[in-house]
Design a protein that fits this description.
The protein is rod-shaped. Helices cover about 65% and strands about 10% of the residues. It has an eight-stranded mixed β-sheet with strand order 1-2-3-4-5-6-7-8. Strands 9-10 form a two-stranded antiparallel ribbon. It is of the alpha/beta class. One of its GO terms (cellular component) is plasma membrane. It is found in: Cytoplasm, Cytoskeleton, Microtubule organizing center, Centrosome.
Length: about 375
């Protein structure tokens, strides 16, 4: 990749380092950096070149870096690996065949302790197990790492002491799934240490330990244990997959129920609004009806009062009529009495005109001042 090549040249110029022709040729002619992969395998990298590469790798341009068979010196390996401490993109690192020893083991342990991105680390054909203390530092870094899943330690002269240190690390490391320990010097004790460690480690599903003078029954036990772990991991993955499917379905149901609830709430709000309008309209109608009823009541009360007055007037009229009737009856009776008295007098006194006029004058007095006089 021309960009990385240009960066390499710029950093070499800034640091006063002579660019290695082999590195430039591989970057350009062989396409040593294609896409997200940087491949400088087979190049003999000096300490100065390692320093420049450590700076260039900090920009996060690659996810895979292959530096196998680069004949790294102790100083060069330390500089290069230190530059990867804070890298957040490199997931695969191949350091096969670089004769890494004590310094390399220690810096690798620090890298594993600090880096949280690396997934695959190939360390085949080195000498990490020669110095037990340095290898213990490497194992401590492995124990604190929680991202590495594949570790290749073939042909690293690891003894049963190194196997014991590695077993302690495996008790704490929960991310490592594949471990290749072929062609070391683990022996019977080393095999037993690993078998005991696997009783507590449930993440390793593949462990290769051929070529270590480990008895066949121990190798078979290791294989069975990792087989159980593999079955367990497969079950966990299946359960996780089912859980994800169920979670998506539950989330979909929640979203659907949420939409339904929202629609229901909107419908309820509309119904409430319509009911409010209906109630207001009904209230207005009731108010109008109440007013009309009150008016009718007032009219009925007025008519009732008029009726009562008419009934009173009628009763008074009836009373007057009765009184007048009684008076008329008395008058008729009096007239009848007078007529009855007049008829015998005529029979006794004769019926001449003179006598008739006298009677008439007696019945019709004439007023004289305040006195009544009778004309004889």
């Amino acid at each position: 990749m021309e960009d990385f090549r240009g960066m390499y040249l710029r950093l070499c110029k800034e640091g006063g380092v002579e660019p290695q022709e082999g590195v430039l040729d591989q970057l350009q002619a062989r396409g040593g950096s294609q896409g997200s992969r940087l491949d400088l395998s087979g190049q003999s990298l000096s300490a100065d070149t390692c320093s420049v590469l450590a700076q260039a790798l900090q920009d996060g341009a690659f996810t895979q870096v292959s530096l196998s068979d680069c004949m790294l010196s102790e100083e060069g390996a330390k500089i290069l690996l230190t530059g990867l401490f804070g890298n957040t993109t490199v997931k695969s690192l191949d350091l096969k065949g670089n004769n890494l020893r004590s310094a390399g083991a220690e810096v690798l342990g620090k890298l594993l302790a600090r880096n949280s991105t690396l997934r695959r680390l190939v360390l085949e054909w080195n000498a990490l197990g020669v110095w037990e203390e340095a290898f213990s530092v490497f194992c401590d870094g492995l124990a604190s790492n929680n991202t590495l899943s594949h570790l290749d330690l073939r042909n690293n002269q690891i003894s049963h002491h190194g196997a014991a240190a590695l077993a302690l690390a495996l008790r704490r490391c929960s991310s490592l799934e594949e471990l290749d320990l072929r062609w070391n010097n683990l022996g019977l004790l080393g095999g037993r240490s690993l078998l005991e460690a696997l009783q507590n480690n449930k993440s390793i599903v593949k462990l290769r330990a051929a070529g270590n003078n480990i008895p066949s029954d121990t190798l078979k036990a290791l294989e069975q244990t990792t087989g159980h772990n593999s079955d367990r991991q497969a079950t966990l993955r299946e359960n996780h997959s089912r859980t994800q499917v169920l979670s998506r379905e539950i989330q979909s149901l929640k979203e659907e129920k949420g939409r339904q609830l929202l629609s229901l709430m909107e419908t309820i709000d509309r119904q409430k609004e319509e009911m409010g309008r209906s109630n207001r309209s009904a209230s207005v109608q009731i108010s109008h009806l109440q007013e009309a009823l009150n008016e009718r009541k007032s009219a009925v009360k007025a008519l009732t009062a008029k009726l009562q007055m008419a009934e009173a007037a009628l009763a008074l009229s009836e009373q007057k009529n009765q009184s007048l009737g009684e008076h008329v009856t008395r008058l008729k009776a009096e007239k009848d009495d007078e007529r009855g008295e007049a008829e015998p007098s005529e029979e006794e006194g004769g019926g001449g005109p003179v006598a008739q006029r006298r009677k008439t004058s007696q019945r019709n007095p004439k007023p004289d001042g305040n006195q009544w006089t009778t004309q004889e």
